[in-house]
Amino acid sequence: MSGNAHDPETLARVYRSLRLIRRVEEEVARIYPSDKIKSPVHLSIGQEAVAVGICDVLKPDDIMSATYRGHAGYLAKGGDLKQMMAELYGKGTGCAGGKAGSMHLVDMSAGVLGMSAVVGTTIPIAAGYALALKREAQRKNTCRIAAGFMGDGATEEGVFAETLNFAALHKLPVLLVCENNGFAIHSPTSNRWATKALCERVATYGIPTHEISDGNVFSIREVAEKAISEIRAGGGPQFMECHTYRWREHVGPNEDYDDGYRSRDDFKPWQDNDQVALTGAMLDATARDAIDAEIEAEIAEAVDFAEQSPWPQPEELFSHVFAD
User: Fold this and answer.
1) Which fold has domain 8-309?
2) What are the tens digits of pLDDT across the range 126-135?
3) Looking at residue 240, what DSSP letter applies?
4) What are the domain boundaries of the chain?
5) Which residues pair with 174 in a beta bridge?
């Protein structure tokens, strides 16, 4: 969806998406200790702006490939919240029939490819789908694109370089997005990268690159809108490195600032730059309160749906084993 970043409709839509993701994940964190959620959870709290800024300018029939930290991407792209919550509960009404859990969300009706817990695997999957979209465009004169999200750790996998080369060589309609939160689990980039020049490395493949350091959802959205427009016009792949910060522990609902690998002082600037709060403050209070109330009702309904849904039937073990 295009439009001026600060026009009322876009502002309200962006805020709603940010707020929905934040509140869903806070609710997941609240429920998690009860053991009702049957899979590990990797929360995107603090990182919402990347998924929202990019998915807001994707079309409904565009494709998005995300990582195991994928709640934000799933919801920002329009994935079904009831089915997501049921999947976390391991229920038969979940988006993957209760088989996949938090790390493998999928909703192809919203253009959400099945997510993967293996670091780096979403990169070639996004490129592969982009290749299919390019061939579709040649047959049907369409202009759909794929957006592939990855963490900074994934850029160290060999498949990252291989995919960059393939995507550039074949001018694939793919936007590759690095959500750089500074850590591969607990290892900072300073212990892993010889230089911080990630965009410079990507640019050697002839791919246009964009580094957004301020974490601002509208900065991300503006860059994504221009990049996606150029990709649709046949310009080939583009790459965005979006600096962000994970507020909670790598996996689980808690904080981890006492674990010795980062400090609360590092967190403070990102907390002050919280895009959920700052974007909400741009709205009229009455309009913001109405959005907030709508979101709370939606979440409560999704949790109730998950609670009341049945467990998968035993026969479900034998479905999706072989292609139909």
Assistant:
1) Rossmann fold (3.40.50)
2) 999 999 999 9
3) E
4) 8-309
5) 146
